[in-house]
Amino acid sequence: MAQSTLNESARALLAQPVFIHVAVVRSDGTPHLTPVWVDTEGDNVVINTALGRSKARNITQGTVVAISALDPKNPYQAIAFQGTVVEVTEEGADSHIDFLAKKYLGLDTYPNRQPGEKRIKIFMHPNKVWMQPA
User: Fold this and answer.
1) What backbone phi and psi angles, to 5 degrees, belong to 72?
2) Is the confidence at residue 54, as pLDDT, over 90?
3) I need a surface site. Which of 50, 55, 73, 93 has the fewest CB within 10 A?
4) Burial, 30: exposed, middle or buried (Cβ in 10 Å; 0-12, 13-18, 19+)?
5) All domains in the chain, ordered by first residue
6) pTM score over 0.85
7) What does each C-alpha distance from 25 to 18, 35, 55, 65, 100 come to in angstroms?
8) Which residues 6+ apart lie within 8 Å of 40 measured at CB?
């Protein structure tokens, strides 16, 4: 059964260093799917990217998204949701990518930052959430 918010099981899964897959439809009608690091803030799922990348061009405020993730310890436990991008901001994006580097790589700072790179945080609000139990 679908829910409209992330439950505790979904939050616990996304708190782990799991990769999510974010799907959108490009302006030309073709699909765009990308694996990314993930975080949650309040009821939103949050990802981070750099301006100029495909994600930044294809995932803007108001974009409808579909997301899925599998528990790496049990691939039969899965989460999927449909939602909407509710905010795209540069505010806090640099510290956020460092937080994600700590979560995923165990490093205090993101090692792949490029000179002059501008990071953005993308907040996605789930409208329908499906959680496959373990």
Assistant:
1) -65, -20
2) no
3) 73
4) exposed
5) 8-132 (2.30.110.10)
6) yes
7) 23, 15, 11, 8, 26
8) 6, 11, 14, 15, 46
